[in-house]
């Protein structure tokens, strides 16, 4: 099968298209024919190996010192189950699924094997039937970005009627966060660049702020909850405090290690099928152009999500 192999840490060019052996599922695994995979900031960090000096050793222990010990990268995918192990009961051949692969990686390929029951611990695989009304490409963008948005909004104890500000509202996590905050009944203000104002409005934001023209911490508005959805730490908690009500909360997407739960992935599926939220896809690239996809994500200017299509028909069935 075709797969993208990360030969060493470095720029996008270290990702090389190779022919590798097609995997065989274990008794508790399913074999997935991958139709689409997302390319996220997290993928780019893993490939480059560039992290905060305090995280360098933990990352190398977890991923590999000289190169990733799992050479086929990619954290989230959508595809169809081609075969199942003898102990699998939740899925059957032909099921259309979407998944977060976690520490297994493996999404940048034509096929991968995933365990039927991912655990709730950080970085473990979670997999569910994909939303019936989304394409494989759209569904591939949901498992990590959507569950991250849900996790951090819950961490902020979001409540109906609250005033919530989302910084980075046009990004992969941000586009889901805007829609989920509206689902929870919040009054949402989205912060993004000039070119993305209309997109964020279309996702349900009540107000939008162009960060190139206005500093929200100096606007005089007060919020119950501020969520930095890009992890750039736009401003310190002290700076943001003047934009929060007393006892208001500020949370960044890089605050701690989130836990991704299967129940949350299933909830996102149900919300998508009910028309409450949707995936935002900026660009699609074929598997062979994975380096170009990584380069684009690293510009920091993507709208929503970037996906890789893997040589199969991308359709809703």
3D architecture notes:
With 317 residues, this protein is of the alpha/beta class. It is built from nine helices and 14 strands. The radius of gyration is 19 Å and the shape is globular. The model has no long low-confidence stretch (mean pLDDT 91).
Layout: helices, strands, pairs:
Layout (H helix, E strand, L loop, with lengths): L1 E5 L8 E5 L9 E11 L1 H8 L4 H11 L12 E9 L11 E5 L10 E5 L10 E4 L6 H5 L4 H11 L7 E5 L4 H12 L3 E6 L4 H6 L4 E4 L12 E6 L8 H5 L2 E9 L9 H12 L7 E6 L3 H9 L6 E5 L8
Parallel strand pairs: 8-9, 8-11, 9-10, 11-12, 13-14
Antiparallel strand pairs: 1-2, 3-4, 3-6, 3-14, 4-5, 5-7
Please name the defining characteristics of this protein:
seven-stranded mixed sheet; five-stranded parallel sheet; 14 strands; single chain; globular; 9 helices; alpha/beta
């Amino acid at each position: 099968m075709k797969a993208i192999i990360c030969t060493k840490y470095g720029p996008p060019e270290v990702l090389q298209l190779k022919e590798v052996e097609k995997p065989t599922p274990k008794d508790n695994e399913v074999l997935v024919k991958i139709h689409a995979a997302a390319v996220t900031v997290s993928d780019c960090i893993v490939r480059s190996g560039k992290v905060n000096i305090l995280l360098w050793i933990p990352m190398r222990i977890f991923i590999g010192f000289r190169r990733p010990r799992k050479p086929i990268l990619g954290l989230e995918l959508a595809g169809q189950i081609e075969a199942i192990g003898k102990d699998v009961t939740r899925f059957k051949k032909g099921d259309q699924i979407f998944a977060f692969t976690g520490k297994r990686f493996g999404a940048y390929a034509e096929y991968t094997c995933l365990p039927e029951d991912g655990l709730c611990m950080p970085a473990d695989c979670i997999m569910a039937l994909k939303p019936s009304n989304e394409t494989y490409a759209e569904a591939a963008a949901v498992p990590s970005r959507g569950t991250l948005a849900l996790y951090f909004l819950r961490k902020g104890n979001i409540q109906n009627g609250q005033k919530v500000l989302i910084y980075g509202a046009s990004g992969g996590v941000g586009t889901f966060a805007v829609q989920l905050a509206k689902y929870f009944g919040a009054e949402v203000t989205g912060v993004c660049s000039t070119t993305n104002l209309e997109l964020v409005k279309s996702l349900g934001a009540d107000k939008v702020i162009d960060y190139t023209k206005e500093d929200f911490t100096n606007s005089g508005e007060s919020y119950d909850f501020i969520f930095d959805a890009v992890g750039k730490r736009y401003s310190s908690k002290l700076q943001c405090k003047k934009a929060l009500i007393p006892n208001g909360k500020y949370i960044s997407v890089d605050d701690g290690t989130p836990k991704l739960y299967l129940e949350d992935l299933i909830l996102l599926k149900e919300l998508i099928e009910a028309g409450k939220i949707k995936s935002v896809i900026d660009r699609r690239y074929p598997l062979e152009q994975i380096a170009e996809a990584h380069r684009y994500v690293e510009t920091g200017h993507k709208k929503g999500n970037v996906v890789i299509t893997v040589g199969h028909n991308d359709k809703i069935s």
